[in-house]
Design brief:
The chain has 2 domains: 2-8 and 95-178, Pleckstrin-homology domain (PH domain)/Phosphotyrosine-binding domain (PTB) (PH-domain like), CATH 2.30.29.30; 11-92, no CATH class. 51% of the residues lie in helices and 27% in strands. It is built from 5 helices and 8 strands. A hairpin with a 2-residue loop joins strand 3 and strand 4. Helix 1 (9-21) crosses helix 3 (54-91) and helix 2 packs antiparallel against helix 3. The protein is elongated.
């Protein structure tokens, strides 16, 4: 069966956010940055309280509370903003471009304005399904992003499972809960 869809900025952002949420480096960076900021603010608050600078001590104490409560939300918002800027700068030529995916036994045929080609099932690293998209990871490191709302997702899912490659369902994944 042939599936036709268009990739938009939001689809690329969703993919980048999913990959980022699985990145140990990003998880470690988020945790370490928060700890460093909380520790530095605590040290400054202690210093200013011992120096009889109550206003600055209260200010840095408030910063500690805000960092503990809201740092992860801020980090998530900032990451999403950065990915959006990156995608707009580097992939804007792909926005709205029609892509066609056709499934055959043991391979996928992909066609867009830049060209077409076949991907053999053995060249797939895995397929991930989230609530809104399918991500088909290729051995080359690139991925196919398929928005579920633009295709017959039930039929496509059956066809993808017939490829007999790793299939991961994370239907409850969202950027807000992942970070």
């Amino acid at each position: 069966m042939q599936h036709t869809y268009k990739i938009e900025k939001e689809d690329l952002i969703e993919f980048q956010l999913y990959v980022a949420s699985k990145s140990e480096v990003l998880i470690k960076k988020r945790r370490n940055s928060r700890a460093l900021l909380v520790a530095a603010s605590t040290l400054f608050a202690g210093y200013f309280f011992t120096s009889d600078e109550l206003i600055m001590g209260i200010y840095f104490s408030a910063m500690v509370v805000l960092l503990v409560l809201f740092y992860y939300k801020y980090f998530s918002w900032k990451q999403k903003l950065n990915y959006g800027r990156f995608i707009k700068a580097n992939y804007s030529s792909r926005f709205g471009m029609q892509e066609t995916l056709e499934m055959f036994p043991g391979k996928i045929h992909v066609k867009d304005n830049f060209g077409e080609g076949d991907v053999i099932a053995s060249e797939l690293n895995g397929i991930i399904e989230i609530e809104s998209h399918f991500f088909i990871n290729l051995a080359s490191g690139s991925s196919l992003i398929i928005p579920k709302y633009q295709v017959n997702s039930i039929e496509l899912k059956k066809e993808l499972k017939r490829l007999k490659t790793g299939f991961v369902e994370e239907l409850d994944w969202s950027w807000k809960t992942a970070m």
